[in-house]
Amino acid sequence: MGRIGTRFSELAKLGRKALIPYITCGDPEPGMTVPLMHALVANGADLIELGVPFSDPMADGPTIQRASERALARGVSLRDVLDLVRQFRDRDEITPVVLMGYANPIEAMGVESFVQAAKASGVDGVLVVDYPPEECTDFVELSRKAGLDNIFLLAPTSTPERIDAVGRLGSGYLYYVSLRGVTGAGHIDLDEVSTRIPLIRARVQRPVGVGFGIRDASGAARVARVADAVVIGSRIIEEIERDPGAACDNVGRFVASVRAAMDAEGER
């Protein structure tokens, strides 16, 4: 079992839900990425989703798009992302790291080269937004052989057939997109999430994380009632934008407040 499976197993034994914050690698500047990752862990993150900067992030709202633009303006490439993960591993060999991004940078590097480099750098899983399960069996096979988990998105509109396909190909956890839109758009519909997650669990025996639309600690706590993990991205990027020089402190305080609210919910 890899780091992701181990972490979810440990949390289940403790009756806790996973907190998965997202940051874009290289934002606000490359030298801040590793300190931000350590700040996330120090304040309660169980896994980290690390965004790979891309010029046309179709699933991301304006907040994360701006983060990608800032990183790209500083020349951050996929190889730089992997190097920063390697630097993170110098101090943290335990926290799972999932790369979240798009197919183009991977295809440009070469799929085999990427998989080998990702594993060597200490990456645990990959979530490639525009790799639908029907079109990425070769990538999944290569990733599995290297010990990388493949995380897929499910949406409110996902059919039973799509859920089954994701169940066959995916590993680690499932990412349920709570909104019919991009990241940071609107607020989560907890009633719909509460209805959909049991339907997913009935078909796939894997932890389910929920993201898109979670804006604060109370929202995260409500999602933690029904999901195995809470994913927060745009709101964290906003904390970085608000004061880049104090990003580690501000992000740390926000993540700590979310962790505390989730834990308090679990104790009820």
Give a verbal description of the structure.
There is one protein chain. This protein has 268 residues and is an alpha/beta fold. It has a single domain, classed as TIM Barrel. It has twelve helices and nine strands. Strands 5-4-3-2-1-9-8-7-6 form a nine-stranded parallel beta sheet. The longest helix is centred in the last third of the chain and has 20 residues, at 247-266.
| Share of residues in helices | 40-55%
Instruction: Count structural domains.
Output: 1
Task: Provide the CATH superfamily.
Answer: Aldolase class I
Please give the number of β-strands.
9
Strand arrangement within the widest β-sheet reads 5-4-3-2-1-9-8-7-6
CATH class: Alpha Beta
Rg result: 17 Å
Give the second-level CATH assignment, the architecture: Alpha-Beta Barrel
- First and last CA, distance: 31 Å
What's the pLDDT, averaged over the residues?
Answer: 93
Quick rundown:
With 268 residues, the chain is of the alpha/beta class. The chain contains twelve helices and nine strands.
What's the structural blueprint in terms of helices and strands?
Elements: H1 3-14, E1 18-24, H2 30-42, E2 48-51, H3 62-73, H4 78-89, E3 97-101, H5 103-109, H6 111-121, E4 125-128, H7 137-146, E5 149-150, E6 153-154, H8 160-169, E7 174-177, H9 190-201, E8 208-211, H10 217-224, E9 229-232, H11 234-242, H12 247-266
Helix pairs in contact: 2-4, 2-12, 4-6, 5-6, 6-7, 10-12, 11-12
